[in-house]
Amino acid sequence: MLKPGQKAPTFKAKTQNDEYVSLEEILADGSGLVLFFYPKDSTPGCTKEACDFRDAFADFEQSGYKILGVSKDSAGSHVRFMENNNLQYDLIVDTDLAVQNAYGVWQEKTNYGKTYMGTVRSTFVIEKDGVLSVANYNVRATGHVERLSKELGIATSKGE
Prior knowledge:
Elements: E1 12-14, E2 20-22, H1 23-28, E3 32-37, H2 44-55, H3 57-62, E4 65-71, H4 75-85, E5 90-93, H5 98-103, E6 106-111, E7 114-119, E8 122-126, E9 132-137, H6 144-152
Parallel strand pairs: 3-4, 4-5
Antiparallel strand pairs: 1-2, 3-8, 6-7, 8-9
């Protein structure tokens, strides 16, 4: 598992619009990145987390961070998810699990006694120098964005 202080794994992947995005390009713009991994579009916990990032988008942006979500869903699924929830940030289409494997979030999970492979809800904050300042695995969707904002010292427009 990745830890704060380590160099973030680089990636180049397609977004919901079939356009490539890379960590290198984001950092070259002088921005940091909040990269969050979630299991599945349009499920309750994932929708809650995505909408919380939507609501805090301007606060993260003002603090110098871009936001990208990642799941193994298709581009079409991402587009519907974004439209239904008015998401203003891009979602990476990671059907081949390349980005998830690089960040160690595709793991064995157990639910109701059944073992399977799946995405562990996780968030990474990559600073402008490409180093991880946050590497949170197994996060709970509810309250996660608020906790992350506080951890990064980002004042939110909600006064949190």
